[in-house]
Amino acid sequence: MDLYKILQVPSDADVATIEKAFRKLSIKLHPDKANVSTIPSGHVETREEKEAREQRNNEKFAEIAHARDVLTDTKKREEYDRQRRRNARPESSNETKEGRRPHDRKLKLKRAGPLTIAQINE
Asked: Which contacts (CB < 8 Å, 24+ apart) does range 72-80 have?
C-alpha cells in the first residue's frame, strides 16, 4: 500500500499539500457521507450488503487517515520513505540480486530431466 498514492500526492509533497489532499478525500470518503452516497440504486440491499458497504467505506477512510498521520509526522515519514526505498525494485529490470531472472531457476529445473506430459502442457 503506497501512502502517497492513497492521498494522490507526489512523494515530495509538503505537509500543506498532504493536508489539503486529505481534506479533499475526507469530504468524499468520510463514512457519514460515503455511507449515504454509496447506497446502490435499483435494488434494495440486504443487511449484510449494507454492513459490507459501510465496512468498505470505513476502511477507505481509515486508509487515508493513516496515510495522513504517517506522512505529516516527520519521523514516521522518514521511516516510511526508508522502507519504501528498501523495498523498491528497479522497474526496468527483472533481475534478482544474483543477476538472474526469477524464472531462470524454474526453467533449469524443468530441463533437468525428460519432460512429462504435464510439463509440456504447462
From this structure: 72/15, 72/18, 72/19, 80/3
Instruction: Compute the radius of gyration of the chain from its Cα atoms.
Output: 23
Entry pTM: 0.64
3-state secondary structure of 104: helix
CA distance 69 to 75: 11
Q: What is the pLDDT of residues 28-74, one digit of tens each?
A: 888 777 677 677 777 788 889 888 888 888 899 999 999 999 999 99
From the CB of residue 101, how many other CB atoms can be counted at a distance below 10 Å? 13
Query: Which domains are seen in the chain, by residue range?
Result: 3-121 (1.10.287.110)
